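REQUEST FORM: STRUCTURE PREDICTION
Request ID: SP-0412
Submitted by: Lab K.M.
Chain count: 1
Length (residues): 40
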Amino acid sequence: MEYHSPVNAIGAFENYLLAIGWIVGWLIERHSIKKLNASK
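STATUS: Completed
RESULT:
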């Protein structure tokens, strides 16, 4: 199996972006919930 193929690199990069996007979205959502709870 050729590990350094462009397809594998693109797939790994997409997984990386997906993970970062998920974490960022989770942090933003958590931050908004904290704000909403604080304003009550």
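NOTES: Residues 6-39 form the longest helix (34 residues).
Reviewed by: T.R.
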